[in-house]
Amino acid sequence: MTSPPTARLRQALARRLVTDDYLHDMGWMEAVETIPREVFLGEAIFRPTETESGTLWEPLRRSDVGDEQWTSFAYTNQTWVTQVGGISASDASRPLAGSPTSSSTLPGIVIRMLEIAGISDGDTVLEIGTGTGYSAALMSHRLGNRAVTSIEYDPVVAQHACEAITEAGYAPTLVVGDGLAGYERNAEYDRLIATCSVRYIPASWMWQVRDGGTITTPFWGWMNANGLANLTLGDDGTATGHFDPFEVAFMPVRPHTAPPLSHYLIGRGERRESRIDPNVLDDSTGLFVAQLGAPSAQRMGSGDEVILLDVATGSQAATQADPAGGWTVRQRGPLRLWDEVEDAVMTWQGAGCPPQSAFGLMVTRDRQYVWLGDTEGPNWNLPA
Ligand SMILES: C[S@@+](CC[C@H](N)C(=O)[O-])C[C@H]1O[C@@H](n2cnc3c(N)ncnc32)[C@H](O)[C@@H]1O
Question: Of all atoms in ligand 1, which is nearest to the CA of residue 136?
Fold first, then answer.
């Protein structure tokens, strides 16, 4: 099926993941050495090009570069985007603007997340976001086909993944549908792992994972701040756990994407002095905290000039440097977005600006909230 040079590349990738501190559990070493990633990249990928108007995604076909170069792409520890704005690389005839909607995540992150999820021999797993199918194949190799269920939202992506997984010699349960609903037929699962991000934990995940099982999912919000939540289910219908220090940024589950931005009215609203330096939102934990404070807001701008917009209510806030020193903010609409951001950021600053791993997530039947320090500490409701 795969040629000897590819086998050497797989072994080299596995060694590199160990050296670079991604792979520690030798159970995954053999899987990386065995699964031919080039099969999962298919016949075309997108390469990013930075332009003055933003990132353009240039389609690149295997036939453009030849087999040798193609396999070398597959065995670099790099993410390869395979779909942008719902258009697959094999269907694109010119560079595209827009956001990636499917990819083969870099193997280092795939493996690290499998380890953080604590997945090991004997576990049953539900994966949300099959994508190219590479991670589903790794898990099928280690755990067996019957132990792995993977859900993909996009039928075209799911079809490619199914063909690649079959070609590689595996047969997990592959489902085309919305991972937010889980897959009841194979429940209960020991582990749930998502390779796309959520704004909150869907209710179905809570009852399809067994008590004592785990949910490991990238977390994301409309200000584009990210985290990696690692939760354990209690026997009382709740789940809690910390955000992991490992930094990841995954594309959002499609039903959680933000609404299109509406227009913004420059220079309107009540003006006052800002209680915080808006530049704090350029720090990844600062932005994470700001997003907790105003989860319905989308952010534009950076540095001194931050604009927040809540599309549903038309509320907006805009900061700027004050020539006299400090910063001012103008706010309008029913939600005082900057007030909420200030309160959250000042709470975090008051605690000494701890890293994201000091935060955790609590999911109960009635409420989901992010806590700081412990479950009784300062907390912020998620838009669940
Ligand atoms: C980063 S890719 C997955 C990478 C994949 N695990 C791999 O290693 O090749 C994320 C995938 O999640 C899928 N997705 C987005 N929303 C989803 C949803 N609600 N349910 C299931 N899959 C979803 C996207 O279509 C995309 O293919």
Answer: 6
